[in-house]
Amino acid sequence: MRPRLCILLAGAVAVSSSPVSTKDSGDNFALPDVSHNYKARAAAIETKRKGWLYEEYPLGGAFYPTGKLANQTISEQQAQWFPIVIEHAKLIAEESVAALSGIIAKGNFSTLNDYANIYENQWKMSLPRGPMLGMLTNYTDDRLFSMMRLLKKTPWGVRPNLENGLKTGEAFTGPQYYPWAPDAARDYLNQLYVSGESADFERNYYRSEFKKRGLIDSSFGPRLKSFPFYEDTTVVTEAIREFMESFINSYYPNDKAVAKDIELQAWYRETTAAQVHDFPQIRTRQAIADVLTHQAYLSVIVSNVMSTNGIHLNSMSLPFAPAGFTQPIPSKKGLTEKDLMLLMPTPEGAVWQVSTYVVGHRPMWRDSNETLSHLFDDETLLARTNPKTRAAAVKFKATMMDFSTEVRARTFDKNGLNRDMPFIWDALDPNYAPFWGVI
Ligand SMILES: *[C@@H]1O[C@H](CO)[C@@H](O)[C@H](O)[C@H]1NC(C)=O
Ligand SMILES: *[C@@H]1O[C@H](CO)[C@@H](O)[C@H](O)[C@H]1NC(C)=O
Ligand SMILES: *[C@@H]1O[C@H](CO)[C@@H](O)[C@H](O)[C@H]1NC(C)=O
Ligand SMILES: *[C@@H]1O[C@H](CO)[C@@H](O)[C@H](O)[C@H]1NC(C)=O
Fold first, then answer.
1. Which ligand 3 atom sits nearest the alpha carbon of residue 1?
2. Is any atom of ligand 2 closer than 6 Å to the C-beta of 347?
3. Of 194, 127, 145, 434, residue with least CA distance to 303
4. Nearest 5°: CA angle at 250, between 247 and 254?
5. Does ligand 2 come within 6 angstroms of the Cβ of 191?
6. CA distances from 237 to 165, 227, 275, 296 (A)
7. What's the CA gap between 373 and 115, in Å, rounded?
8. Any alpha helices (H) in 195-330, and if so which ranges?
9. Mean pLDDT, residues 402-408 taken together
10. Is-contact 376 236, C-beta < 8 A?
11. pTM of the entire structure?
């Protein structure tokens, strides 16, 4: 099973499948019952507490789980996703060779338009549809760049991979024009973390974050006429919240039951040991539903838009988003296309860029059960939940299917725009975006 509902729900809240929960028989989820067989339950929790610790990680950033049980989980997760990553990387390597030959056969790059040759009839497995519709044709329109700025753009097992990449410089073996060294990546990550920008939990709930940045409900400046990331994120995130509310409300009869759940309150205290910043008090049912919703937002929506589907389909597409230049950018105005071409990626550099950024893309999962529509679609797990939770899962899937239909019906209007953008943004199509963070 992929780390989805199990991580979000059973792993986080005290709704547990403990052998001492009395109301449900068998293996069903239930609230912990402290009056019954308390000693055995306390001992089981103590074992877990000792085997699941937190410490600094070489890469920096957030504290990282360690200890016997945590290490076991990390290894299991790596065993799940690493083979897929390796297989994917092998196919990309093959496609890279073909893409380079294709560029050379067409006489390399002499104009910016020639960069479209990197995509033409290439990357059939890793980027079969090429960049988003409009990206390669509408770049003379300023709205392409301004709207890209508004498209904002995994659990534990991933971090060792990133750390190894930095250590060996794997992520930096591209053509030498890539401007950053591994240490710069580490510094950037830590700056972002220490400033609270990425570390703060509640302050980064999407609406709070957008408000803080003046993107919504701003007291100054005009309202944004169109904010596609916010619009699509709202549909998906609010559907996740509705599921979470049904799930939590069907287990906890009222807020008092939340405050009295000593295991849940102990879990909350662990967030301090793990140095989670700005984690909310858990006194109400809504507070738990909001925590779970935000976790899903981070690992599904943000990860998708900034990596899986967003990055190569728009924000890293060539020629207008090079990952680096072959020379420092001149400070004088009035550069000609010919001057620009001297700075632009070489054929090898362009192929390196595409192949590096398609690593996180999973077009082969489009319309499969790895997508967002199937986030709560896990028979084994749902069989252990109550009927209200199962009904909420059915509703979530139906909402996502409808939204996918809506996203796929998007076209350019008579001005050549879609929601004021000169390209079609479909990164959050629920039957395209994977429900889990992939790399
Ligand atoms: C868990 O893994 C970390 C990192 O590899 C290691 O330093 C630590 O000793 C391990 N702990 C246990 C109990 O295996
Ligand atoms: C085209 O690019 C390839 C790869 O960099 C290079 O080997 C070849 O000499 C170039 N051809 C021309 C005509 O510049
Ligand atoms: C997902 O789909 C695959 C391929 O169709 C199938 O083998 C697998 O059992 C499905 N998984 C779930 C959880 O339904
Ligand atoms: C953007 O590209 C599409 C498809 O190539 C075209 O139909 C549309 O008119 C273009 N929009 C603008 C503003 O150029």
1. 13
2. yes
3. 434
4. 115
5. no
6. 32, 15, 26, 8
7. 35
8. 206-212, 228-251, 255-259, 262-273, 285-296, 303, 310
9. 98
10. no
11. 0.89
